[in-house]
Amino acid sequence: MNQLLINGMVVVFSFALASCGSLPAARVGSTLDSGNTKVKVSMGGRGLLFVAQKLSGKADCESLKRTLSVSITEDGVGNPVVTTSVCDFIKGNLVVSSKSPVAKGEYTISIKRINDRAYKDNPGVYAKYEDPDFAGGPDYLVDGARELTTGQSLKGGVSYPNGNTTEWIRLKGRNVSAGLTLLLTGDAKDVKAEIYDTGVDAKTLTLVGTLQPKKKRMVRVRNSNMLVKISAKPYTGAGEYALVRADAGSAGTTSVSRGVKIPVIDCYQVGDNNSIVLLQAVAGVKVNDEVSVFGRNAGGETVAIGNCQVTSIVGSQASCKMDGAVTGYVEYHAEGRISG
Q1: Helices (H), the chain
Q2: pTM above the 0.90 mark?
Q3: Which residue in 186, 262, 303, 334 is a FRET match for 131, CA 20 to 30 A apart?
Q4: CATH class of 255-337
């Protein structure tokens, strides 16, 4: 309360401070907008909550521990979380982390940097979850793996910050050579695809290789013994994927693979996110069949462009619709399993 003398009269008035508003929210697994900031974060599961700051040049991490101040407080509790500064958590980073795992919940993080020249870029806020798949579906376990048969494609998505880090896919079939192509959206470094053999006892997992984006790889399937593990990079990794399967020929079927290609007559983009591919209607192709479209770039490299579904057949031409653009290649062909 304040008093003011005006023309001999005492005027009493009061005022309230303007509300500062709510703090900005930051997503776990992201870089912050400033090096000196205060944000709200949400922990989706139990684990270590930490701030990582990249160091510039040959900065000595140990000598910089006192120049990065980080406080973490659990909302509704008020008591500060005990933190520790470490230099060997993430290479090239000074990390200030909760000393012990914190519970799922909402937290406020305050960051102050003293020597900005010693740092590179803004800091980020991250979590190291005790269970990286706290929000995962049944397919985060081998026993819950989704099944992929010849001529099919499976779509999915993984995200470490969101607690859906791993998805397993089982290749169904007996004594077949499965052709696999991985298509990714986002940064390829964020998502990894590994191929495992379950062994004779169907219990022992052995890593036999990896899948590179848009690079077709043949895998021998003896008796549904092969699995593909899709996983997100720790702390930051997230992305959507499609795993396309087009097998080599087997007895009793007519199959299109690397050796027998479906000619592409023409292709063009319709709208922002769709394309039409005109195929030669080879014997056995039907409406709703799925094929994989490949393109050869100017450097002579053949890459997988995407999966395409046949929508109509008129005379000797089949029209195929797919997501994404198909322009920018000097030559095209399609592969897929068809019955005939």
Answers
A1: none
A2: no
A3: 186
A4: mainly beta
